[in-house]
Amino acid sequence: MREAFEAPTALENRFILDLMDRHLGGLADTQILDLGCGLGESSTYFALRGARVTATDVSGHMLRVTSAVAGLHGVRVRTSLASAERLPFRSGSFDAVYIANAIHHLPRHEDLFREMHRVLRPGGWFFSWDPLAYNPVINLYRRMATEVRTEDEEPLRFETLKRAKQWFPETRFRSFWIATLALFIKYYLVDRIHPNDERYWKLIYRETEGSLRWWRPLVLADRLLTRIPGVRALAWNIVLWGRKEQKK
Question: Which of 2, 161, 199, 200 has the most CB atoms lying inside 10 A of its own CB?
Answer without folding.
Answer: 200
